[in-house]
Amino acid sequence: MANTVVDKVMRRPVRLVPLAFLGVIAIGTLLLLIPATHHDGQVRPMVATFTAVSATCITGLTVVDTATYWTPFGQFIILLLTQMGGFGIMSIATLLAILVKGHIELSGTLVVQTETQTQSLGQARRVVLRIATSMLVAEAVAAVILTLRFHFTHGTEWPQAIWHGIWYAGMSFTNAGFALHSDSIMGFIADPLTIIVMSVTVFAGSIGYPVFWELLQKWRRPRNWSVHTRLSFYGFILLFVLTFAAFLIFEWDNPDTIGSFSVLEKVTAAIAGGVMPRSGGFNIVDYALIKDETTITTIVMMFIGGGSAGTSGGIKVSTFFLLAFLILAVARGERDVTVAHRRIGDETLRQAVTVALLAVACLVGGTMMLAILTNLPLPHVLFDVTSAFGTVGLSMGITPELPAGGQITLMVLMFLGRVGTFTAASALALRTATRHYHLPEERPIVG
Amino acid sequence: MANTVVDKVMRRPVRLVPLAFLGVIAIGTLLLLIPATHHDGQVRPMVATFTAVSATCITGLTVVDTATYWTPFGQFIILLLTQMGGFGIMSIATLLAILVKGHIELSGTLVVQTETQTQSLGQARRVVLRIATSMLVAEAVAAVILTLRFHFTHGTEWPQAIWHGIWYAGMSFTNAGFALHSDSIMGFIADPLTIIVMSVTVFAGSIGYPVFWELLQKWRRPRNWSVHTRLSFYGFILLFVLTFAAFLIFEWDNPDTIGSFSVLEKVTAAIAGGVMPRSGGFNIVDYALIKDETTITTIVMMFIGGGSAGTSGGIKVSTFFLLAFLILAVARGERDVTVAHRRIGDETLRQAVTVALLAVACLVGGTMMLAILTNLPLPHVLFDVTSAFGTVGLSMGITPELPAGGQITLMVLMFLGRVGTFTAASALALRTATRHYHLPEERPIVG
Ligand SMILES: [K+]
Ligand SMILES: [K+]
Asked: Membrane-spanning residues where (chains A, B) (predicted)?
């Protein structure tokens, strides 16, 4: 059965992926409408739909408090949806990347197509199995550490410690960021180990399977890393350090966030503040109270997102740094964009530009929509819109207050951000047609 | 003398242009420090510097009220600076465009360089003369109409009517947007003719000399227009219509702006609201009171700006639509980006991307800087930062309140936006070097 699904996805990826996600969302919505999933006894279709979209798109934005609104059964369904969403996105995005690579290697050669397809199908099955294994191992390790910590340090009874351990491990690896505490992870501020375990788990899911696997195999030999792994890994580290430093410096004196904390707690908060916008989504402080300069930093980081074919959203770290290398090359007057002694193809660069510009268009469109529908402060709107599109889940608190139209806007953004960017990028790469003649060239003035 | 200057600029454009602007700004600052230029008798170097930068960069942002702070002598110096800035930017940008075209046509041929340079120098002198003539004629026509209107409709005495006519004609064509009324052009809301004359004059300067000249010569034969003229002209019209409609719809009911106006006044206001963000900078309403959705629209339009080699700022209409056509081509899977049956070269597209991304970086950097230095509302900060970088001059009113560091940030943005984008674009085009070997290609995952 699993193989049949893999086969189908590999053959018509761009139509099936959004449909698959819509299917999971529909089932999730129906399940979350069951009275036993929530405490209030009312039927609230909007709450069920929004939560199902947010969980399946592993975003973590909420219109109700996960800890108090949902029963353990409801919470279990949410956890299941995030696991399906996370596993789905990692495997499908990885498969599409393989497909694109195969397509590009194929064009120009005369290899019999069906033969290659059979080969890549075999490869695809292996990859999906490996993703499932990596995911389970990573989550299990995190769950064990967190459970022990919750029991022995925080004095939580075993059953709840285990449940919380599994929950936070899963929610970290999938970057879903739903929390079983009403104040998210703010209560763990004095427990650096828990925050660091969550942050590392978020990173493991966020960096993306292709990089995760290459790091596992070649972590001793960075010289052999692919360009994609270099861009993603070093880029991720660089962005983390910048966000960490910005959070620490900007918020240091802010009495509403970390101003009254000890130095160790400030550093702990800054670690979460540096990792979570890309795109774990657990909040260590009340983001409605951060300084404007932290708001800008966080919005930019949520826009960039994490690694490709991982559980994070955004335009992706590699896309962002490809654009940076493009600018460098243009500034140096070089025709070729080179990264680590490899040339980056024109098609790849164009796709990076297209993904980034379409993402900007989504953010502007979404912000405009909410500006028309509500009178909420513009920075809060832009923050939550970027969080939805980047499937981050951090919030300045406006999401629950939005009218139906506003929540639908956020749902569309979550879906586009989760399923849109990478299927679009793959579709673009797969559709590249060759024109056999060129029109005469003309040079409009730029700038 | 003029020829010597032209020769020098043509030979080392990228170093000389910023220096020339800095020179004019320095002289302007010294002149504006003369006590006879202002009423208050104090020496305020920051006011003189900011005004000189704003005038020379034809932006129109102010830290004091132009109408009441400066004496007629001071106002005359401001007018002179805007004329020098406007003429300077039009001629230098046009010359650089010719230089770039020559450079591109040269590369690949074996024409003796000095010979071609002599030819293009002759062409350059003709062009500068034509720009001066067009500018004077356009300003004279506008000045006459406005003077008559001020005298006969508004009952202004002849001397002041003439002074105001010349002032507003000049400030419109150069897109400088300084006003001799403390409420800018808000007082002319009931006088559609004046608003339309100003708007048309703003358009004439803003669209840029290359398009202006081509329209003059070939206005009957749109089929013969160059790609640049098509992109700029149709793009300008399209953006105007969108901004006009958005302003009219969003502000229709806003009691703080046009809510209480008659329908004719609303339309008049929307004409100015549609034209001025690109980048005339006269304000027909108090921009601090517009709706959030109008704020977003206006910010986007200020970012895009007007035509290349004109008196407007921003990334330019042609750059924006080149990016749109790039996205279209990628979405269609076409290797060539084509506009009106002409192929757009890869170098041109890369420069467009670079200009747009660097502009975004300037806006994010400037907004971040002001967020750190002040506690002003973020949307107001982003608005005035975009206005400065786009040399627009619209303001949500925060500019005069900024601390010295904030005003210096805006000055840097005005300078970068005015002199930076087009010299950078030209420098990029001129520096393109050819690598005679290619490195092996590699494809990172995008999105
Ligand atoms: K998330
Ligand atoms: K202006």
From this structure: 16-34, 46-64, 76-100, 127-148, 193-212, 233-250, 313-331, 352-373, 408-430
- Is A397:A380 a contact under the CB 8 Å cutoff? yes
Ligand nearest to the Cα of B206, by number: 2
- CA–CA distance, B166 with B148 (Å, rounded to integer): 11
The gap between the terminal CA atoms of chain B, to the nearest Å, is: 55
Contact A352 B446 (CB under 8 A): yes
Q: Residue A428: its chain B contacts at CB < 8 A? A: 330-331, 333
Where do the structural domains in chain B lie, given as residue ranges?
A: 2-431
Q: For residues A195 and A244, is the Cβ–Cβ distance under 8 A?
A: no
ipTM of the complex in this document: 0.90
Say if B336 is an interface residue toward chain A (CB within 8 Å).
yes
Dist CA B169 CA A386 (whole Å): 43
- Hey, which residues 40-79 in chain A have their CB within 8 Å of chain B? none
Of B156, B171, B155, nearest to B282 (Cα)? B171
Find residue A337's DSSP bridge partners.
A344
CA distance A141 to A201: 9
Q: Which of B104, B368, B447 sits opposite A421 (nearest CB)?
A: B447
Q: How far is A388 from chain B (nearest CA, A)?
A: 16
Could you count the other beta carbons within 10 Å of the beta carbon of residue B247? Answer: 31
Chain A residues in contact with B97 by the CB 8 A cut-off are 445
Sign of the CA dihedral running B118, B120, B121, B123: positive
CB-based contact A292 B319, cutoff 8 Å: no
Encode chain B (447 residues) as per-residue pLDDT tens digits. Answer: 455 656 665 566 667 888 889 999 999 999 999 999 999 888 899 999 999 999 999 999 999 999 999 999 999 999 999 999 999 999 888 888 877 776 665 554 444 445 555 666 777 788 899 999 999 999 999 999 999 999 999 999 999 999 999 999 999 999 999 999 999 999 999 999 999 999 999 999 999 988 998 998 998 999 889 999 999 999 999 999 999 999 999 999 999 999 999 999 999 999 999 999 988 889 999 999 999 999 999 999 999 999 988 899 999 999 999 999 998 888 877 878 888 888 888 888 888 999 999 999 999 999 999 999 999 999 999 999 999 999 999 999 999 999 999 999 999 999 999 988 777 777 777 765 444 456 666 666 766
Q: Are residues B303 and B200 in contact, defined by beta-carbon separation less than 8 angstroms? A: no
Q: B408, exposed or middle or buried, with CB in 10 Å at 0-12, 13-18, 19+?
A: middle
Ligand nearest to the CA of B174: 2
Touching check for A315 and chain B: CB below 8 Å?
Answer: yes
From the centroid of its chain, how far is CA A326?
A: 24
Residue that has been written with the tokens 């467009």 in this structure: B352
- Out of A326, A438, A439, whose CB is closest to B350? A326
How far apart CA A177 and CA A284 sit, in angstroms, is 11
Q: Angle, to 10 degrees, between the axis of helix A45-56 and the axis of helix A72-106?
A: 40
Q: Does A255 touch chain B (CB under 8 A)?
A: no
A231–B contact, CB cutoff 8 A: yes
Q: What is the CA(A278)–ligand 1 centre distance, in A?
A: 8
